[in-house]
Task: inverse folding
């Protein structure tokens, strides 16, 4: 399928994150401090809460529901460990963010 344009960084400032639906996938675009841009699954792997309702500090994303924390750079769970966010291939071209939604599959726990 390849890369699809998702949004512009004009609309998503540093320190912000927003979910976009791309070809039926909920993709969270994170524009972390320092200008780092990452595309991760938009739904928490714990109990399927939208992650954009959480908070972002540096590269640490905290889910609002039970405060699970993830490093958006790697997708790895920080607290607790052993959980993970899917990280999608993404590119910034000019001010536009492109994501390959076929490049990853979201993780969900049975909890
Ligand atoms: S639903 Fe996100 S931590 Fe529980």
Result:
């Amino acid at each position: 399928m390849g890369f699809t344009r998702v949004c512009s960084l004009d609309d998503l400032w540093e320190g912000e994150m927003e979910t976009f639906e791309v070809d039926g996938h909920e993709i969270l675009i994170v524009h972390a401090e320092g200008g780092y841009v990452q595309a991760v699954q938009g739904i928490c792997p714990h109990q399927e809460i939208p992650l954009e309702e959480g908070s972002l500090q540096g590269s640490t994303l905290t889910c609002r529901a039970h405060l699970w924390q993830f490093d958006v750079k790697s997708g790895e769970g920080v607290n607790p460990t052993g959980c993970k966010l899917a990280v999608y291939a993404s590119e910034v071209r000019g001010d536009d963010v492109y994501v390959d939604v076929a490049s990853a599959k979201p993780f969900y726990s049975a909890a």
Q: What stands out?
A: Residues 32 and 104 are 21 Å apart (CA to CA). The chain has a mean pLDDT of 95. The first strand starts at residue 4 and ends at 8. The beta strands are 4-8, 16-22, 25-31, 37-41, 55-57, 60-62, 69-71, 77-79, 87-93, 96-100.
